[in-house]
Design a protein that fits this description.
Elements lengths: L8 E6 L4 H8 L5 H4 L8 E6 L2 E7 L1 H4 L9 H11 L8 E4 L6 H5 L3 H11 L1 H11 L9 E2 L2 H10 L7 E6 L6 E9 L2 E9 L4 H11 L8 H7 L9 H7 L1 E2 L5 E2 L9 H6 L1 H11 L11 H29 L3 E5 L6 H9 L5 E4 L7 H10 L14 E5 L12 E4 L4 H11 L4 E4 L2 E3 L8 E5 L4 H11 L9 E5 L3 H4 L14 E3 L17 E3 L1 E3 L5 H14 L3 E6 L11 H10 L4 E4 L2 E4 L1 H15 L5
Parallel strand pairs: 1-4, 4-5, 6-11, 11-12, 15-23, 18-21
Antiparallel strand pairs: 1-2, 2-3, 6-7, 7-8, 9-10, 13-16, 14-24, 15-17, 17-22, 18-22, 19-20, 23-24
Helix pairs in contact: 1-6, 6-7, 8-16, 9-14, 14-15, 17-20, 17-22
Length: 603
């Protein structure tokens, strides 16, 4: 094949290798939460071939370290394997940050200058590429502005011809908020706010103050927010985040960090909060009502700031369809309230809205993205097959072969018997949500299933909600579905109909909402068939769906990790590819279910 005919292959990646290590070396005696406050988490790789996204995977799925920031060499190699290509055909390599001008800002501050030289500089990224992937030693990394990378991942897959595109995160190079108009297949930047207006850093501060890990546990604060009184600290949060003209807002609470160490630990901001709320919650301490009420007030203020920003730009541009990216966009409670607000006509949230998604955006930016609206409904199923690495041959559990068609019926029957079942099939999801390929499933009709999954399977806090998956055509029977809102990816919390709450109590949060996944038969037929069979058996087309992992571990990538999760947790059974594994207490029900479906059992 002549070079002119060869597909254009662009490899994108995210992450800032060495960022945490540099911080630890520069600041002594950091506690675990303070050490988590660094940029460059969520290393990932993505491959774009002739403008089409063909593969994407997070480095954590190979390293086993959640939110891994290491150079994503394993993820890169995985993407090429999935496409049946090798590094020799790669035309360009793109990174999700462009710190070209940051050297100017770093002058005069030794730590900042060292951080630029050893972590941020584009030249440093090229050095790392050559070290970890010598096959690409002839390439120079092409830096892509962080928010541009985020924005492309929202604008292109949303399927909107025209849209408002909003990026909200902790910080890119300098910006924490960017607003774009998407018209004619191009982004037109309308406004930016810098890191002093960072809702992501504000929420990380509250996460830290309430005793959790920043850049990791923000969803716990969002869950807590349903349990508290927003009035108690409303005035404090109004001081912490102020609203200004033209949709702008500021986060004055961040300005109390006036020296390098304070900026790296939020020491000044935490002291300011302690003077108004009381002591910060320490690691392992019991949650106080004060901390719960703070979470509630902070969540409400975050929502007010987002409404303020989006409302202004919707009115200014007339663009009433909105596509979101950035870590703050994963606050499904805020997005859900916006969907009901009447401010917008349609909402799309990029399913890999965190920094892992910018690996995709960086690749798209360099690959010359499509100029027409593109709907990528299956955007999340971009990783390796479950068969990439299988369970051990000498595993001790009862097991049986179950093929497509049979497996779905057997799983549905086992779920109606109260069992908790792992389901690992096909290609791995990209992003933080399990959407039916690496999932833990349970019966939503049993409130006790939530407690059991949280305590014995996931080993996490009892107040944490668990999400429902529902047949897309049945979603409106159980949930108040906002018009124009994409519910495919568990990115929007919606109200559960009052009549449905006692029917599916295990997936209803304390505020009456649920983070729904609408499952389409054409997009994930096997998962849809489990839902359909479960409905045939008990009349409810809804299942509890959470990621196939335990606390502190990434979602299982291949069969080996799925099996380890099964063996080390309270899962009763797991189906990995074409084989069902059962613990002793579930073997009898598994045999009965298989016999009911096939009339026989073949071990």
């Amino acid at each position: 094949m002549e070079a002119a005919q060869r597909p254009r292959v662009v490899l994108g990646y995210s992450g800032l290798h060495g960022s945490a290590e540099l911080k630890a070396a520069g600041f002594a005696d950091l506690d675990e939460r303070e050490a988590r406050l660094f940029q460059g988490l969520d290393s990932a790789a993505a491959l774009v071939v002739d403008g089409a996204l063909v593969a994407a995977v997070q480095q954590e799925r190979y390293s086993g370290r959640k939110f891994d920031h290491a150079f994503p060499v394993d993820a890169m190699r995985s993407c090429l394997r999935l496409a049946g290509l090798d590094f020799a055909v790669v035309d360009a390599v793109a990174h999700n940050f462009d710190h070209t001008r940051f050297e100017i800002f770093a002058q005069g501050e030794p730590y900042a200058l060292r951080r630029y030289t050893e972590v941020l500089a584009p030249q440093r990224q090229t050095e790392l590429l050559h070290r970890f992937v010598p096959e690409l030693s002839g390439h120079r990394v092409r830096p892509v502005p962080h928010h541009q990378a985020h924005a492309l991942t929202a604008a292109i897959p949303a399927g909107f011809d025209e849209a408002l595109v909003v990026v909200l995160d902790g910080m890119g190079e300098l910006h924490a908020v960017s607003v774009y108009a998407w018209r004619g297949g191009a982004l037109h930047r309308l406004a930016t706010l810098d890191y002093r207006s960072s809702l992501g850093l504000f929420y990380a501060l509250v996460t830290m103050f309430t005793g959790y890990w920043p850049n990791s546990d923000e969803y716990k604060v969002m869950a807590l927010a349903a349990l508290g009184d927003p009035e108690r600290y409303r005035s404090v949060m109004a001081e912490a985040v102020t609203l200004g003209p033209d949709g702008r807002f500021d986060v004055p609470v961040l300005r109390h960090n006036r020296d390098p160490r304070s900026r790296e630990t939020f020491a000044g901001s935490r002291a300011w909060l302690a003077g108004r709320v009381g002591p910060e919650r320490g690691a392992g301490e019991a949650l106080s009502q004060a901390h719960i009420d703070l979470a509630t007030a902070a969540q409400q203020r975050l929502e007010q700031a987002i409404f303020h920003l989006v409302g202004h730009w919707v009115r200014r541009t007339g663009l009433r369809r909105v596509a979101f990216a950035g870590g703050v966009a994963l606050n499904c409670a805020a997005i859900g309230k916006l969907a009901y607000s009447g401010l917008v006509d349609a909402i799309y949230v990029q399913p890999a809205a965190g920094d892992e998604g910018t690996a995709v955006g960086a690749a798209l930016a360099v690959a010359a993205p499509p100029t027409e609206a593109v709907d990528y409904p299956a955007m999340t199923y971009l990783g390796p097959e479950v068969t990439e690495d299988g369970p051990p041959a000498d595993q001790p559990y009862w097991s049986v072969r179950v093929g497509p068609g049979v497996a779905e019926q057997v799983v549905a029957r086992l779920l109606t018997r109260g069992h908790i079942v792992g389901w690992a099939q096909g290609r791995l999801e990209f992003g933080p949500r399990a959407l039916g390929n690496r999932s833990i499933l349970a019966d939503p009709r049993d409130r006790g299933a939530r407690e059991r999954v949280n305590a014995a399977v996931k080993f996490r806090e009892e107040f944490r909600p668990l999400a429902p998956a529902v047949k897309a055509e049945s979603a409106s029977r159980y949930f108040v579905v906002p018009a124009g809102t994409n519910l495919r990816h568990m990115t929007v919390a919606v109200a559960v109909h009052p009549h449905a709450r006692p029917v599916i109590p295990a997936v209803v949060h304390d505020d009456g909402t649920a983070r729904v996944q609408a499952v389409f038969a054409a997009e994930n037929p096997r998962f849809w068939r489990i839902l359909d069979e479960f409905e045939r058996l008990c009349g409810v087309p809804v299942l509890m769906n959470t990621s196939l992992n335990v606390k502190g571990q990434p979602t299982a990538r291949a069969g080996a990790e799925a099996f380890r999760t099964f063996a080390s947790s309270g899962l009763d059974l797991v189906v990995i590819a074409d084989r069902l594994y059962a613990k002793p207490s579930a073997v009898g029900d598994a045999v009965e279910a298989l016999a009911a479906v096939t009339g026989a059992v073949s071990v």
